[in-house]
Specification:
Chain lengths: 112, 116
């Protein structure tokens, strides 16, 4: 059975700290891994990772995929209170286009 | 960019009634849409894949007769929660992919259902 596991489940840091969120996956015919940020409503897209070892960056956020060890990390540097949210990773297999298998999410709280 | 609209954003209903939630792709056509359910402090769980012009594909454990899905056009999918009960109270989110074969889904804003 396909599954995606995230850790930690929750995290509390102070502004300026750097955090690393983990995501491991077991997805049949794995194709890509996606990271989403969810605040109060629907998730918003952050990154899609398909190739191993290639870091994707967007401002203070970056992510990388290791297809050999079946995991991905999401880094957030110089955290701000606006980074407080639930971060979801999801795996997708090539046999199920568009069907995402979500992890439990990591709840990040950034304190001033 | 791809925009997915969901309506209503929140609804309160009495036990035993049916509730319809609409999901529209506003600026693109979506042959496939997905319905997710999210309980408080939990992740999104895929309920079903909605296919335009054909029957929806339901995930294991999801009752087809309870959660009716209709994908009548390339821009609209509806989820009807029939004979709702308090345990059906949840956050329902739809998503769609802009292009066939694309992995990046755009999510609707979600619909919070409360059944009294």
């Amino acid at each position: 059975e396909d599954k995606v596991v995230q850790s930690p489940l929750s995290l509390v840091v102070h502004e300026g700290d750097t955090v690393t969120l983990n995501c491991s996956y077991e997805v049949t015919n794995f194709r890509s891994l996606l990271w989403y940020k969810q605040e109060k409503k629907a998730p918003t897209f952050l990154f899609m990772l398909t190739s191993s070892g290639i870091e994707k960056k967007s401002g203070r956020l970056s992510s990388i995929l290791d297809k050999k060890e079946l995991f991905s990390i999401l880094n957030i540097t110089a955290t701000q209170t606006g980074d407080s949210a639930v971060y979801l990773c999801a795996g997708i297999g090539s046999s199920n286009t568009g069907k995402l298998i979500f992890g439990q999410g990591t709840t990040l709280q950034v304190k001033p | 960019g791809a925009v997915v609209s969901q309506h209503p954003s929140w609804v309160i209903c009495k036990s035993g009634t049916s509730v319809k939630i609409e999901c529209r792709s506003l600026d693109f056509q979506a042959t496939t849409m997905f319905w997710y359910r999210q309980f408080p402090k939990q992740s999104l769980m895929l309920m079903a894949t909605s296919n335009e012009g054909s029957k929806a594909t339901y995930e294991q454990g999801v009752e087809k007769d309870k959660f009716l899905i209709n994908h009548a056009s390339l821009t609209l999918s509806t989820l009807t929660v029939t004979s709702a009960h308090p345990e059906d109270s949840s956050f329902y989110i739809c998503s769609a992919s802009r292009t066939s074969g694309a992995n990046v889904l755009t999510f609707g804003a979600g619909s919070r259902l409360t059944v009294l």
